[in-house]
Each structure stands twice: as structure tokens, then as C-alpha cells.
Amino acid sequence: MTRYSLTPRSVALAGLATLLAGASAGPQQLIARPVKGGTAAPACVAPASTLALTFAYEFAGVSPADHESDVWTGRANGALAGDLVMALQLLGSPVEAAKPVWRARTHWTLTSGDSALVAELYGTVNWKTGIMRLSGVVTQGCALGSEVHVDGRFVDMNGSGILRILSSAALSQADVSVGSP
């Protein structure tokens, strides 16, 4: 009997081939709830603070919403713990999907009780080493306007890492301190 080992790169290429062939994935259940627009919840992020959240997620398939992104679902833990959904989209041509390093756009949704946040992050995923580096900003909900950085790692298509949220108040203080002698 022959055994085949699937690497993250081969699974990603198979998903891309499915998209290019025009096949559509069946409906999938995502664990994130819709994020209400507006301002951040009062207890979401303490002023002038940085939140460091750990996360872990599993590959859930191709996004039923856009049929272009791959989706992972899981949990974030820390001061803002909750359900996490990350959608990752390759930036570039389909030919670039064969390369080990992808430039990527990601859409993160973290739902924690009545609070939620949505962040748009850009960066790279190195499928050979499994390392993911992203940065961006919270675009909706809790901690609106805060800077976000992700240091993650993929192993067998499942991911984990640290998500850091630097509140907009902390960013303002950093800008003032840079100009001071």
C-alpha cells in the first residue's frame, strides 16, 4: 500500500486548482458572528495598552463568500479571548501560488462575548518554513483604528501564534514621545 504525505503547499495548490477549475466548495459553517459597526466597546482595550493574544486555528476550506480565500477557524486566548476566523488570499497571479513564499491579504474576525473586532492584515506566508508575518489595522468594532501584528506558524495546514493589538491611544503616545527630546 502506498502512503502519500500532504504538505501545506500541496494542499494550498490543490485548493487553488479547485478554484481555477471553477468548482465550488460546499457550504461551510464559520464560527464568527457578524460584527456591529460603530465604536469600540468601553472595556475592549484599556487606554495606552498593548494586548498580546495567543491563537490556534484549523484549516476549514475555501471561503463560501468569495471562493478565492482559504479559511481557518479557531480560538484566541488572552485579555480578549474568543472565536477567531482568518481568511487568507494570495496577492498575485495564480502562477505565484507555486512559489514557497506568498504575499497575502488576510481578514481576521475575533468575536468575544458582546465585543468583536475585524482586522485587515497584509504580509507574507512562507509555506516552506511555515512562518507567517502580517501587520495591519482594526477596521471594525472593538479597538477600532488599532495597529495589529501577527507572528504565526503553520504546521500541516493548522496555525498558531501571537496576535498583538496596539491601541490607537498607545500609538498617539508613541508619536508624541518620538518628537520629545
Describe the protein's architecture and organization.
The chain is mainly β and 181 residues long. The protein has a single domain (41-179), classed as Porin (Beta Barrel), CATH 2.40.160. The protein is 14% helix and 46% strand. The chain is built from two helices and eight strands. The chain has helices at 8-20, 168-179, and strands spanning 50-62, 70-77, 82-90, 101-112, 115-126, 131-141, 147-155, 158-166. The N and C termini lie far apart (71 Å).
Short description:
This protein has 181 residues and is mostly beta strands.
Write the layout of secondary structure elements.
Blueprint: H1 8-20, E1 50-62, E2 70-77, E3 82-90, E4 101-112, E5 115-126, E6 131-141, E7 147-155, E8 158-166, H2 168-179
Antiparallel strand pairs: 1-2, 1-8, 2-3, 3-4, 4-5, 5-6, 6-7, 7-8
